[in-house]
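Q: A reviewer asked whether we had any structural model of the full assembly, not just the individual parts. We don't, so I'm hoping you can provide one. Inputs are below.
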Amino acid sequence: GENVEQHPSTLSVQEGDSAVIKCTYSDSASNYFPWYKQELGKRPQLIIDIRSNVGEKKDQRIAVTLNKTAKHFSLHITETQPEDSAVYFCAGSGGSYIPTFGRGTSLIVHP
Amino acid sequence: NAGVTQTPKFRVLKTGQSMTLLCAQDMNHEYMYWYRQDPGMGLRLIHYSVGEGTTAKGEVPDGYNVSRLKKQNFLLGLESAAPSQTSVYFCASTLWTSNEQFFGPGTRLTVL
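A: Here is a predicted structure for the entire assembly that you could use as a starting point for your response.
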């Protein structure tokens, strides 16, 4: 089955800096790679996703890049703000609609 | 639309007791999932369902059973709770034309 590794487990940045979280996957059949944000005590919510036929996708301050050859994808957050502080999860899934999640990255943005 | 709801929000059990967690969605989604979330472990899939009347095992199914008698509901049962089942449980659902998971608010379960 799919195996998704996520790094780092904790990321601390100053407000205004950029943050990058990386994930690798093992199953070359995976074709959908979402990122979820989970604020403390809340449910995970989708913030951005990318499919395997696209190399990069942007939505305002967040972007996701995908390298199919190397089997890794990354979340980029620019101009970080304190409200970006949360746990971020990556996931990979194929046509089975059964995602495998990474273990999460705790992002801390210091004012 | 209420989206995905879960009942109860919190529960404390004693070892050996049983309980059922209820997940309901009003979005007519075909796929439904049960996850457990433990510190540093991410979201691990317990069981899932691809449609009414169908269920399948996920990554960590031992000690849990599920049923999906109605399309909008997905029940997770613990027959004999153990302290290792102390966790936060999330239900999620997905439309078959999309991979996006919609999560419920979670159930915090403590087994003493």
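A: Points you may want to mention in the reply: The interface with chain A takes residues 31, 40-45, 48, 50, 58, 90, 94, 96, 99-101, 103-106 of chain B (CB under 8 Å). Chain B has a mean pLDDT of 95.
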